[in-house]
Design a protein that fits this description.
The protein has about 210 residues and is an alpha+beta fold. Helices cover about 20% and strands about 30% of the residues. The strands form 2 sheets. Strands 1, 2, 3, 4, 5 and 6 form a 6-stranded antiparallel β-sheet that branches. The chain starts with 8 loop residues before the first helix and ends with a strand.
């Protein structure tokens, strides 16, 4: 099991997307009220010209507004799921489906930002293999090069999804919603050659994408 505290976010981004290619942007004075971990993320992310988000997006810092003691800072790509921090206690995070009731997330703000960035990297990978029907008996072979990251459970994108990390590799898994005994699996890597081992696992019909 990988402790998330061992993941250095700038180093992870450089390994996944290449070195930063521009200076950090300073937030305007009107954003000084934002929590430290969020301001740090905006500064870090501004150093890459490539998009670092795909299935979620961080709200522009100037547009974050307190409403009823909470401030939305992150949304999924459709705007149907949102994350907010507590204005009085910013390390406390809530999430909810659009028009749903806010529920406290079990992760701190800093941990949730890391969780979100790592998860989005799977969708921004140079190479991916995807399959929605991986037999459970083959999962050990699929997960052989990686270890699970000890992230707390999320309701989004689905219950029981897990994230794994290896050398320039990420995998997310969730039990398939059809007959039991199968998993939906996404395997992503910064280099397509790292995924070639998957071609030697029988019975899995991978959908492959290489940029």
């Amino acid at each position: 099991m990988i402790n998330p505290t061992s993941i250095c976010l700038p180093e992870f981004l450089a390994e996944w997307y290449g070195p930063s290619d521009r200076p950090a942007v300073q937030l305007p004075p009107e954003c000084s009220w934002l929590p430290g971990p969020l301001k740090e993320w905006y500064a870090i992310s501004s150093q890459w010209s490539v998009p670092l988000s795909r299935v979620k997006r961080f709200v522009d810092p100037e547009s974050i507004t307190p409403i009823d003691g909470k401030a939305i800072f992150l949304e999924d790509g459709t705007g149907d799921w949102r994350w907010s921090f507590d204005v009085e206690c910013p390390d406390v995070v809530y999430d909810a489906e659009l028009y749903g009731e806010w529920r406290r997330n079990s992760e701190s703000l800093e941990r949730l930002i890391l969780h979100s960035v790592v998860h989005d990297a799977i969708w921004n990978a140079a190479a991916t293999y995807r399959c929605n029907r991986v037999p459970e008996r083959l999962m050990d072979a699929v997960l052989e090069p990686v270890q699970q990251i000890d992230f707390a459970p999320w309701e989004w994108p689905a219950q029981d999804y897990l994230v794994f990390m290896g050398d320039r590799m990420l995998i997310d898994t969730v039990p398939d919603y059809g007959p039991p005994g199968f998993f939906q699996v996404q395997v992503a890597a910064a280099d397509a050659a790292l995924l070639e081992y998957l071609d030697h696992i029988p019975e899995i019909n991978w959908r492959k994408a290489v940029s």
